[in-house]
Amino acid sequence: MAGSRAPGGGKIKGGLTVGDTSITRKPNCPKHLLSDEHAIDAWHSNLEIMIDRKSFAAEDIPHLINYSNCISSIIKLQGQLTDIKNFTDVSASGSLKLHPHVTALNLMVNQSVKLANQLGLTPMARARMLSGGKGDKEDDEDDWDEYK
User: Fold this and answer.
1) What is the pTM of this model?
2) Measured CA distances, 67 to 29, 81, 134 (Å)
3) Parallel, antiparallel, or unpaired: how do β-strands 88-90 and 96-98 relate?
4) CB of 106 within 8 A of CB of 81?
5) Which of 9, 84, 99, 125 could form an SS bridge with 89, CB 3.0 to 4.6 Å?
6) Element (H, E) at 97
7) pLDDT means per 10 residues in the chain (148 residues)?
8) CA end-to-end span of the chain
């Protein structure tokens, strides 16, 4: 096998920046793009966290808007599913099926987790982003030597 690697296959070097450190104040809240007060609250609280960590960049804005709207949808859907009988619905054939709100809630939760990972708002994503390759072995030996 050839001794070449795929592009980007090397280890991450230290000093990785994950955001734009020149941004020191929060950009204006895009209230016309956020669905309601829950989304606006999510925008402000998560943006503050990202700026404090210096992990915010202007290109994060669309993802943060989508994440904030997902959080708002989750809050609204959970409010509609306060009673266990709201989790199921009766199909045309008479059998039980998941209520459409449960399906929508599952979709929103999955989407919010993906967006939170992209924004570094989950513990694992934050650890990956902020470690910047620290703790890796320092020698420059070829990792592929054992496969030659």
Assistant:
1) 0.69
2) 14, 21, 29
3) antiparallel
4) no
5) 99
6) strand 96-98
7) 54 58 82 94 93 87 94 92 80 87 92 92 82 56 62
8) 7
